[in-house]
Predict the 3D structure of the following.
Amino acid sequence: MAFPTAVNSEITDSVTQTNVQVLADAPATAMGNVYMAVAQALANSAHNATNAQQQNFALAEAVTAKCLQALLGSTTTA
């Protein structure tokens, strides 16, 4: 029970219990937010790695084509 006040003790108890509930939920909510932020960061890094790999493959294909063109002595350029 809360300290004696001019307000009904049932009301002060209710507000106190609500505040305690909010404070008790704060660490779990914070950790949930951290987990979501980490998951988003990992997803972004995976997407970036996939994009970099695709770009490297495209560059490698272009270099291979140019090298073959030089080896075969082709004089046409695109």
